[in-house]
Each structure stands twice: as C-alpha cells, then as structure tokens.
Amino acid sequence: MRVLLAGLCTVDQVQRVAEIPAPGEKVRSLSMDVAAGGPATNAAVTVAALGAEATLLTVAGAHPLAALARADLDAHGVDLVDLDPGQPDPPAISAVVVRESDGERTVVSRNAHASSRSVLSMRSLHAQLPRLEDEMPRCVLLDGHHPEIALHLARWARERKVPVVLDAGSWKPVFGELLPLVDIAACSSLYRGDDPRAYGVPVVITTAGPEPVRWTTADGSGAVPVPVTQARDTLGAGDVWHGAFAYAVARGVEGLQAWIGFANEVAAERVRHEGPRSWTASVAKMGEGLP
To answer: Domain Carbohydrate kinase PfkB, which positions (predicted)?
Structure first.
C-alpha cells in the first residue's frame, strides 16, 4: 500500500531548552537534533513508520544542507523523489526551540522559495508519473507548497479516483484552484482563509491541538476527542496527524470518525516523546490496529 505525498522539505535544527529565551538572552540547550521537516515530509515519515510505502515528491536540491534531509528520510524509509536535484540554493531551514517543561515549541522558518526552475520540476514530475502508476497510491496528501506540483498531482489523482487530502495549515494562494480538486481538507485551528466548503470540498476537518477534532460533511458534523497525554514535544504533531490520517484513508476501512480517531492516537503518541524522530519506533505497530 502506497501513499503519495507532495510538498515542503526543510532542514530543522531543533534545540531543547529549560525555558524559551527572552529577547537578548542567551541560554544553553539541553539537546540538539537535525532532521528533515515540513508538513508533507513529517507526514511521509509517519506513513513509513506505520508500515506503508511513503513516496515524497519535493524539491531538495544540490546544496550540501539538503544531504542532511536526504539522510534522515532514507533512514526512516521514505522514498524521496527530488524533482529538481540540481537546484543550487539551500533548502528552507527551520530554527526550532522546544521547552522542556511542556514540549511547547517556537519555530522560525521560511516556506519554499519561488524558483525560476519550476519548469524543470514539472518536467521531472511528468517523468515520474508512469512509475507512480505502476503501484497506484491509495491516497495523495498535499500541503500546498510547490503549488504547480500540487495542482498537477491533484488533477492526476482526481482522474484516477484516488482520494486527495489537503493539509490546510494556513491559506495559500493556490488554494483557490486546489480546493475544488480536494476530497478532504484538514485545517488547523489557526487556518484563516476561505471556507473549503465554498469550493465544494465534501469533508472538512479542523484540528486544535489537545482539543477535540471537528468534522463536517453534507450529512452532518461532529467531533472526535483527543487522548489525554503529557506532552513532551509538540514539534510536528500536526504533520504526524496528517500522515496518520492519510494512512488510515489509504487503508480504506471503518470511515471518517475512525480515521480521525486513529490519527488522534498517533499524534498523541508522537507528543509523548522528545526529539524529532524518537516517536517512530513507538508507532511502528499502530497501523496493525486497523482492520
């Protein structure tokens, strides 16, 4: 079973501290990690940890820092497809500070930069599609970064009746064209933009950290509670949720509320663990809980 993911790949430098420093203050970190990051990237790591094939389409490039992301993803079983391996610019870098007491994080980052080489990326994408059709994915997850790639994949999936899930953490200009091609829009509580239902999205979900996850369809609405847990590290928890949800959709059983409940459980397991990847071993068998 394969899940196809497309979007942002960053290099995350993560420092764990006793307290988040005030302006002008210097503090010594308790630990430091470097890992690949970004919504679609962390979701891909989750899919792979749960036991499915995770193919990530992104732009990493030729800069030496991109090798850090590649090594991390290779170690965690993600099939990384770099659509512009000759891109000379450094990848987006996120500076992350995680507070020891409650796992709360502060992130300074940049999104994927606009590239004059997007034509090359699209050519690479067209070259990859025949390979992807050899083992058709059961779900496509998009985060809206690299918009031309997201639009093309959404149309490709729609033609093949593959469900498309959108990680709508924040409004992006491409959403006006992308939302009509989406089957499920999973928004964060911080999402500020057009209502996906206005674009005909049949399922809209809203996550809100430890609060119940709300869902709306044409047939009704409801909420699924999130397990109570002591958070040790909240970095990427929303991305992990989206990856687990896409995995559940790809399994294609039980239905919407069960998919949400499964994603809630996996995200709760993630926040119990310190560090960007320490949780993967704990969720490795959670996929076996689905029929």
So the answer is: 4-187, 199-278
